[in-house]
């Protein structure tokens, strides 16, 4: 039975959406714009290196926890999640809302089910937020028709990357049709009003329907979104050569949908590491100053279907360089993919 909500209970919101749709960007926006509300986050990475957790940890300190290396929806034992929920829901943590950022391949209904199944009296299911990449939406649906089912469960759908589409209204109308019970909001860089997070809580009746109708129907793991997907995790203490890495990225196979992480270009830029994101054919580098202390590492996660993981790891290995000096134009290829500013994205080359 679905427990009824009390004023003291902390809502737990599930934040889901396909690979690279902008979940971490949205979460970071909420963390910086939540005003007086304190958000706790549980971040679930598909790859073995917890890139998403690193991206939000700075903003959250000890109110972020990471559940890495595989989709939470397939956790055999949900007790780890319960443990984290308990920690974040402790009155001493002073948290007002908990957000579980699902991996981009997780089955949201499984996560909702896990939250509903939690017996912790201090929490209550706070709704499902689905993030949609407006630019990739048609292709993603064609490849993964299950996405429609995910949207139908949502309480809030953020149609993100609206800056990348010419026909925003068409995508919005399509999403509204697929998620008739949800609030549908367009966004660029996940910039939504944080109030939406508090307002998206489903009513008792809706939660009751979910637990009976939707959540138990698709328990078959073979039908999970991540079936057929592989990930490669690459770590190097040796810098990468920018020309070689661009050669790798320019020739990346179609199936390699998502790349994320941080790159050390050694002598080519001794001040910055480069956060890198590929989503489909979209590619961006974001220079950010190195921390004053700590190891300088390249850490990358590659996720795709039908990919030859060992061959990709070998190709990345071949990008390592121990040249002590930078060649003059070595970074040009990379810099073409550095954004001007948040509001002025670079043109797709
Ligand atoms: N142009 C544009 N880019 C965006 C927008 N939102 C996010 N991005 C970029 O899209 C890439 C992926 O964003 P993330 O927030 O990491 O996506 P994610 O859903 O957390 O990714 P996974 O956890 O790997 O599924 C990054 O390069 C973001 O800067 C947007 O509204 N417009």
TrEMBL record:
<comment type="similarity">
    <text>Belongs to the SIMIBI class G3E GTPase family. ZNG1 subfamily.</text>
</comment>
<dbReference type="InterPro" id="IPR027417">
    <property type="entry name" value="P-loop_NTPase"/>
</dbReference>
<dbReference type="InterPro" id="IPR011629">
    <property type="entry name" value="CobW-like_C"/>
</dbReference>
<dbReference type="InterPro" id="IPR003495">
    <property type="entry name" value="CobW/HypB/UreG_nucleotide-bd"/>
</dbReference>
<keyword id="KW-0378">Hydrolase</keyword>
<dbReference type="InterPro" id="IPR051316">
    <property type="entry name" value="Zinc-reg_GTPase_activator"/>
</dbReference>
<dbReference type="GO" id="GO:0000166">
    <property type="term" value="F:nucleotide binding"/>
</dbReference>
<dbReference type="Pfam" id="PF07683">
    <property type="entry name" value="CobW_C"/>
</dbReference>
<dbReference type="GO" id="GO:0005737">
    <property type="term" value="C:cytoplasm"/>
</dbReference>
<dbReference type="InterPro" id="IPR036627">
    <property type="entry name" value="CobW-likC_sf"/>
</dbReference>
<keyword id="KW-0547">Nucleotide-binding</keyword>
<dbReference type="Pfam" id="PF02492">
    <property type="entry name" value="cobW"/>
</dbReference>
<feature type="domain" description="CobW C-terminal">
    <location>
        <begin position="229"/>
        <end position="320"/>
    </location>
</feature>
<dbReference type="GO" id="GO:0016787">
    <property type="term" value="F:hydrolase activity"/>
</dbReference>
<protein>
    <submittedName>
        <fullName>GTP-binding protein</fullName>
    </submittedName>
</protein>
<keyword id="KW-0143">Chaperone</keyword>
